[in-house]
Amino acid sequence: MSETAEATPSAAGPVPGITPAGQTPYSAWMQTDTLHALQRTVSDHPGEHAWIVHVQVSELYWMLIVKEMHSAQRFLRADDLPQAWRTLQRVVAHHAPLDAIWRSIDWMTPNDLLAILSRAVGTYGKDTALQGWTYRQMVYLFGIKQAEHLQHFEPQPQRKAQLEQALAEPSLYDDVLAFLQRRGMNIPQALLARDLRAPYLPSKEVEQVWRDIYATPDRHADLQQLGETLADIAEGFCNWKFRHLMATRRTFGARPAYFGTEGVAWLAPSLEEIPFPELWSARTFIGSPPPVCPHMARQGR
Ligand code: HEM
Fold it and tell me: Which ranges of the chain would DSSP assign to H, the alpha helix?
């Protein structure tokens, strides 16, 4: 598990019982001076602070989710499902502020966005959020392994190495499947032993395992609870992507983006990249169908 992900360590640790000179205990603990020195605007647009804070807060939450998922993986490997579940419940909770924070830039029109972005390009060069490593690490941990995104980290070798490691390591979903196998579920060994850098291919055997877990409401209640928490996480992630797509439509229209093609056309298909695929596909088969399909009955068939 790539612990280096857990960002850059602080320079010097605190000395117990001593508040650093020029600080209060609160400012020392929360690093407020450092934190508020981090918003460096490139334009004179009054809304740029809101834009930077929105992105930086999102960055912090993505890193938080990465840390939580690493913890959950450790609990799963120790077969401690209650603690893994509690940790994943926090991941569900962290998606709420990530979703809500879009409201803070809903005021943006294309004029506002372009006034800021044009200055950013002039100051730092052509950027894309695909150059953000926290989001990519989170997505790899969800099990969506797309190696092509590594190309954006050539100028950041340490982060590229970190992401390469994350690509090659088990995702949260891999750890869930390994845990289910240890609980006696029929997860194929070959699936767990596959090359983890390759995109995950949904498996009929794993789908059947989720069907079995949900087959009887009271049996495997703890595993159903795990499944529902994973479904909540996947929904939270997909909601974020939808909000992002709508914000893009609203501020950018059908302009070409980083790759020279229409940005919305690049983003729209990614809504179908849903974590934990068999947890979703299995739902077609969970629950008893009524003896007569009500739709067919209505049509007199
Ligand atoms: C509201 C104005 C925004 C527009 C017009 C926009 C546009 C885009 C476009 C076109 C892409 C596709 C890649 C590219 O061509 O660069 C993209 C990707 C991305 N953007 Fe934004 N974006 C906006 C806001 C944001 C904000 C505020 C964040 C962070 C909080 C963000 C995070 C991301 C991430 C993480 C990706 C990668 C998505 C993936 O890999 O599926 N974007 N954005």
Answer: 25-30, 32-36, 48-77, 81-100, 110-124, 133-142, 157-168, 172-182, 189-192, 204-215, 221-252, 263-267, 277-281, 294-298
pLDDT in tens, 60-86: 999 999 999 999 999 999 999 999 999
- The residue written with tokens 């972005």 in the block is 117
- The CB of 140 under 6 Å from ligand 1? The reply is no
Q: How distant is the alpha carbon of residue 129 from its chain centre?
A: 14
pLDDT at 291: 65
CA-nearest residue, atom 18 of ligand 1: 129
Answer yes or no: is the C-beta of 142 below 6 A from any ligand 1 atom: no
Q: Whose CA is nearest to atom 27 of ligand 1?
A: 55
pLDDT digits (tens, 9 = 90+) for 80-101: 999 999 999 999 999 999 999 9
Q: What one-character DSSP code corresponds to residue 11? A: S
Cβ neighbours for 61, distance < 8 A, ≥ 6 positions apart: 94, 97, 98
101's tokens: 């924070």
Q: How far is the CA of 41 from the centre of ligand 1 (A)?
A: 19
CATH code given to domain 44-252+259-285: 1.20.58.480
Helix H or strand E segment including 253: none
**Ligand 1 mean position, distance from CA 155 (Å):** 20
Measured in angstroms, how far is the CA atom of residue 64 from the centroid of ligand 1?
19
Domain spans, the chain = 44-252+259-285
DSSP 184: T
Which two three-digit tokens encode residue 239?
């909601």
